[in-house]
């Protein structure tokens, strides 16, 4: 254990990124199946709820209220998620559709329409020392609004063969898995807050461990569904390159625009991570409802690839921001 820890500390690549890559490799070789997959699904639910309970114990109620009132931050993040991203998805159509084909381009466009991630966006914002209360409100609002906005955008911008329906359980999932544990943490803060303040490594471990677990479970699901055998290697590489460029462009835009609008460093970080991310956990079930037949696998494949790339890049960026903030505090 000590040798492995020392190797991670000396490695030029951040250990968090190595853990994510390790989760991808393990899922590809040993995906969770059967009862193990069902157990892990529940473990993810519990882990995410515990993570947001910890956030609730760590944040002063005044900070949470300030996050709720920061309407400029929330409108900016929602604009990136449901306006800028869809416009980018439409703009790249003439360039990428001849390369990847109709179905995979439909998947690229669909990933531009889904809401932001919740747990990883907030975890990265926390690691980077950004505006965590604002990120919690914005990411949760993105997912709740996305239950309605994503199907509407699909109807407006994409062609579907079946009727589009909206699953209200997504709202209950957000309320029960994200907001309720956070509120319970706020209530319990006077009793357990000092303990977690003295043991900050617990929250840090929860931040990063939850993301690694989500990566493994999501990638395992893709392996079980056989999605990687649907397309040839050339198409797979093309989708990966396009996804990489898309993530990089949005990371630049979501940083440059808020800086020009006069947002603070903490707010810029929240906007960058919440406004760039796209939710695999929300997008996959939405796709199964919105699209029928064998096209579902091809449509969700770009989202799965984009999801992995955004996690790796954002984990590196969040760690870098966190180190810069720590260095500035020490100096």
Automatic annotation (TrEMBL):
Entry's transmembrane regions: 12-30, 42-59, 71-92, 104-124, 136-158, 178-197, 209-231, 237-258, 279-305
Keyword flag Lipid metabolism: no
This protein's record includes keyword Iron-sulfur: no
Gene3D superfamilies: 1.20.1530.20
Keyword annotations of the record: Membrane, Transmembrane, Transmembrane helix
Record-given protein name: Bile acid:sodium symporter
UniProt source species: Gordonia tangerina
